[in-house]
Amino acid sequence: MFSHTEGGSHVSNRPNVENLSTAHDTTTNDFSPTIKPNVLMSIFDSLGKPNQVKPLIQARRSSWYVVWSLIVLSIAFIVLCSMSFLRGNGTDVRQCRMSYMTPSYTEITGFDGNYTRFASKYSLFLYRERYLDTSTTPSGVPVIFIPGNAGSYRQVRAIAAECAHQFYNTRSAIFNSSSNSILSTDFQRGLDFFTADFGEDLTAFHGKTLLDQAEYLNEAIAYILSMYKKSSSSEFPAPSSVILIGHSMGGMVARTMVTLPSYRPNTVNTILTLAAPHSMPPVSVDRDVVQLYEGVNRYWEKSFSQELIGRNPLASVVLISIAGGKLDQMISSDHASVAAIVPPTNGFTVYTSSIPFVWSGIDHQAIVWCDQFRQVIARSLMDALDVRNPSKTKTLASRMDAFRRHLLTGFEPEPQYPKRRFHPTIGKDYSTAVGPPDTVLIADDIGMNVVPNGQRLHLDGLGSRDNAVTHLMPLPSTMENLNDTHLSLLSNRPLLHPTKYATIDMNNDFEDSELYHGIYMLACKYPNSAKELSDSLFSILDLRKYTSMRSSNNQMTLDKGNIGLMCKNIGGHAVVLPQAKTAPPTTQKKPQPVAPDDEHEPMYYANFNSTLLSGYSYVVVVDTNEYLTPGFVLAENRPNCQAKIQISDSLWKYFVGWKTVEIPANSPIEVDASFESLWSSLLAYRVKIGPVDKKKGSKRNDFFTPFMRQYIQEPFESKYYLNLVPGSEFVVNVHGVAPFTPYSVTSEWYSNLHLQVWNDGTGNNGKPMEIQITVDIMNSLGQLVLHYRTALCILPIFIVVCVLMIQLEVHAYSAVFLSFEQGLRIFTKKYLWGVLILTTLLPMFLTNSFVEQFFYYIEPMMDSSSGEGPSSIFTATRKNQFFLGLESTHLCFLGPLFILVSTGLNFASYYVLMAILHLVLYILKPPGRVLGTMTNALFGTRMISLRPLRIAIILALLVGVVFILPQQLVFMVGSCMQLGACVKAIHNLRSIKDNCSSEEANERKQQQRQTTNSEEGENLVNYAVTVLIAMLWIVPINAPVLAVWIRNLSVSQWWQIPFGSNHDVLSIAPLMMLVEKITSGKMLPRINSVGCSQLFFTRAMLLYIAFYCLIFGIQRAYWLHNLVNFFAAWLVVIYIEQDLEDINTTDD
């Protein structure tokens, strides 16, 4: 089959001696065969492509500068990306305070083998804060902390300790408060933190381990709830559910738990995840992990579909995902998004830099112990509790309100569904108005100040008697003006809220209410009649000095000179903003980070579209400070058009230069600049503040130094930059549209970058403020590491497959197997440009719906749901899962860049590998008789036959795969064997050449035999090295799972719980058989080119592997091992058919 007859004569598979040469080439390895021009001419004449001969002839000599240019490019690219990634973007500063606690852990020994089959592998602990929690019997609200990949159960201590301190401090305050408090110590319950010891399992790399943890925790929940039933009192019902807190992969374990058959319905109702990858696994090297992610995400998506109305098992579950931002260099924070998993009324994603009083990015490990962050988490958890309910938590809507109040900035829109479909889990209907009046304001008309329309209210030196007490700002009267204006207020003093001490019943006599000193912000109107003040509860703000108010016959009477207004206290709608503690120097180049200390006082900002204040006539600002108080208040009512700036320039303009946005000196307090084309998570942007005031000795006369908020609408990400003076320069980046990650498709299409600037307009000597922005190439390189860290292991396999295709093609027609370097140079010379053009245009085709559906048909296991289907209630979402996951025409140069780098890496890897092989041979060069005998036995041409021993070892390994060994371990052994086969092939080739030069071959027949042996030896070396390079690129795919298996060896009694997966002997047997053939010194037979059956099938397989590697490889890295194994099986079949044909020939 592997030889054919021409004119009735038998044609051997061996190359024609007259057409081959083994001349030494100074630019390549000593043992790379050289094809003479006449051979190439004959090859392509037979192919019918004579016009392609010249470029191939010139490939080896004319493209050396291209080779080294690619090597330098690949090395420089990796070095620059690594430097950018390790140094960060320069503005994300670690601001976490260290947390302190006195931990103690009590093991739950009763949770043994009678309740779970994992009792010998995992353990369950109850955390207690020493000196506060003295009881080891749980009596509060159960919380389970789930550690992440290689995480420790002790990571629970920071959050658990803070919850304990806040509970006991609150309880002490309630106990010492007045007797008429509505709160009671008997009503309060703390949090019982349980934590699982998983032995620092590597769940990110092994799906079966993740499933084991989820199953163990479901069984732990049942046991924990039973503990409360035994010890609960009759005052409150025993808990029926738990709260889950998952760090990193622990968040994925928490979401997996509710999808398993072992899950008991309604035993989990709140899940809080910290730096957890939800949308895709960190690496796709294990089939079980990838399929688990797709199955779990699909379960969550479908649970909220309209098909399950009234039957949604997750209807009352809250899922909050908190990401650390750019400081998290272990998991991309883009993958923490849950926008496509739960509707906005059941969860959201927020970044730590957005959370009030945290205002900082947090790295992956610090997120479990960061002091200011754990304080906010503890407050939000305590606020979500209600021990009167069996679930021990508030209703879904109340829990979401609590988490939104503590974790969001306040700028975020209320949860709603643009599709406006009915669903029972949507929750309450959020109203757009501020609400009905709740306060009565009584003031002297003498102390009132009416601010004219279009003017700004400036209050400096609060409490000064030179200022009026009450300031009225009229609201627009027509609906047209209401829609076009908004009212803003900014102050560095707190805005006061009404309290129960100032609440009275207007139908009864009342005592003078207590008046707090500070700033009030009210929306007011005149009452239409006295009935509006009857039968209602109001807070009274009585600003009269010498008069009093009386109530008679359900009517309110005012003394002459006093004004009574019905108001709504809108100070509670103000959001807190970070405030710089110190003034900046005039030469400061970087914005000041948010200070982490406890004494940091925020600023307060309220912003209302006038439509929200419809029904009211004034916004009233009241200064009730009794003494002169440092601080300021700025308020204004301005048209919306002055506060919004839209920049719609294309992205490429930011690449080639600076884009300048000018904010006029008389602009509103807050201006929002929207950059419509800046939405990619792969880019970083450099921002400059100008113009620089070069006048020496110039002083600023503004109320506050300008500051900026960088944000996107979804997910909820904000970041603040303080003390912005002319000349400040910093880097910003957003977690908007990321590769392979679902993102929302709204009316604006993308969630783009916004820069929200606060500036009082009086600084910088009345000059306009300028914001200059451009793409920061250097910092953008660091963004590629987390998103494409597996690409430089996957795309080189595509190049190797293309080279192997060239090698097999030439070998089929000429019996010469090119070296890997020669094949790679031919690929670079003839086909690289076509591949670069293809990868440039590929993103445009991949976003086509027909192409997408075709690819989903090829890979049916991929999750094709995008949230756009008729059964979904989500905001429309989409995701790009193919190739590099890029949007159409967006950063289209990344594909060609990765191909060039992958080509350079293959050149570099070949040269490094050949250097290592020659170094091994040099080390094994026999200096003496004993070592020389050993070397000849192992690698010599007349070596002792070790094939039976090798076969026995391979069979033992394959049997071990069936029972306990992972196939990845056997692959590593096979790679080592292939390395030895390459060393042996080179050693044998050297011996043949040495014999050729030393022996006097006078006869022509002897000379031809020696030349033929040398040529066959060169073919074997080139073939073995190519196979070794392919296997080495597969090693990173197999190494993580092997690390999990090795890690499990350290667990006591590990044999009782098998590895549970990766025991498919068919996934490794063909590769081991191929390695054994090469180790035995057998060259691959020529693939039959007559009839094209074998050659066609070989081409088809290699083309499919190259196609799959390019399109699906990054998302399905584990499948590349299987594809290579399939091709190895095909090569083994070719070997076997040749062996059978040789036997038949011998018999004849």
UniProtKB/TrEMBL annotation:
Residue ranges occupied by any GPI inositol-deacylase transmembrane domain in the UniProt entry: 791-1135
Designated name of the protein: GPI inositol-deacylase
Function description: Involved in inositol deacylation of GPI-anchored proteins which plays important roles in the quality control and ER-associated degradation of GPI-anchored proteins.
Family: Belongs to the GPI inositol-deacylase family.
Example GO molecular function: phosphatidylinositol deacylase activity
Polar residues biased stretches: 10-29
Superkingdom of the source species: Eukaryota
Transmembrane segments: 64-86, 786-810, 831-851, 897-924, 944-965, 1023-1046, 1096-1113, 1119-1136
S-adenosyl-L-methionine in keyword set: no
Domain spans labelled GPI inositol-deacylase PGAP1-like alpha/beta: 138-383
GO biological process: endoplasmic reticulum to Golgi vesicle-mediated transport; GPI anchor metabolic process; protein transport
Region of interest: Disordered: 1-29
Keywords of the record: Endoplasmic reticulum, Hydrolase, Membrane, Protein transport, Transmembrane, Transmembrane helix, Transport
Chief place of localization: endoplasmic reticulum
Subcellular location: Endoplasmic reticulum membrane
InterPro entries in UniProt: AB_hydrolase_fold (IPR029058), PGAP1-ab_dom-like (IPR012908), PGAP1/BST1 (IPR039529), PGAP1_TMD (IPR056824)
Mode of membrane association: Multi-pass membrane protein
A Pfam family matched in the record: PGAP1_TMD
E.C. number(s) listed in UniProt: 3.1.-.-
Annotated GO CC locations: endoplasmic reticulum membrane
